[in-house]
Amino acid sequence: MSIHINAKKGDFAKVVLMPGDPLRAAWIAKTFLTKVKQVNDVRGIYGFTGYTKNHKRISVMASGMGQPSIGIYSHELYAEYGVNAIIRIGTCGVFSKAINSRDIILAQTASSDFNWFTDFHLSGTYSAGADFDLLEAAVDESRKAKLRFLVGNVLSEATFYHQDKDWWKNWDKIGTLACEMESYALYATAALLHKKALTILTATDHFQKKEVMTSKERQTGLTTMVNLAIKVAERFA
Q: What is the mean pLDDT of residues 67-89?
């Protein structure tokens, strides 16, 4: 066991899907996997391992919200449980009018307004990027499925409720696609431990079109993204 995960060695597959919401993790395991075994329940952060319809063994575990949370869980999965790849599957708020609600975003890179990189003691600002093999597979599978998707930079923000209502406009001006709260720490942790990571997002909120998905839709209505992530995971399982 690690500090925050009570699974045994070997309980996790080599590839882990990681939504933020524990209830979404449970829904994914119940809906998309067979022969499911629950392997973690510490602090209500549910983790499961099972098999896809193509008989590939994968795991799914929640990350909680924010970079500190996903940083803890991803580090322990990589370092203590032999996980090779984590695919974050989450929701995001999008900036550009060119993006529609429910579009898929593949985070090639992640910027941040959080100070995560300072712990690396570098002489500059670290640029956090996805694993190329995972990203290439996600692009390929998205094209095969004829999905509406975009590849680019996302912002992993530290604050959800901003005092400045126009804070996002400068990020939009330089082509940042969307904001969320976890990818930078995931990518940085994977780089530090020489592992693989990718974030796949569904556009659920829109800063210009005022489109918002309900909490129920966020929990169970993200089937397209989950199916895509499973297809990518199967290539590396």
A: 97
For residue 115, what are the contacts with CB-CB under 8 A and spacing of at least 6? none
What backbone torsions phi and psi does residue 206 show, to the nearest 5 degrees?
Answer: -135, 125
Q: CA 39 to CA 125: how far, in whole Å?
A: 37
Positions annotated as catalytic residues are 205
Locate tokens 């395991």: which residue? 29
- Residue holding tokens 């005022």? 210
- pLDDT tens digits for 10-20? 999 999 999 99
CA distance 179 to 200: 12
Taking residues 154-182, report their average pLDDT.
Answer: 94
Q: Where are the beta strands (DSSP E) in 73-131?
A: 85-94, 104-112, 128-129
* Residues contacting 184, CB < 8 A, separation 6+: 67, 110, 111, 112, 114, 116, 117, 128, 156
CA distances from 210 to 92, 100, 137, 165, 206 (A): 13, 11, 32, 13, 5
Cα 218 → chain centroid: 14
pLDDT at 206: 86
Backbone angles phi, psi at 91, to 5 degrees: -110, 165
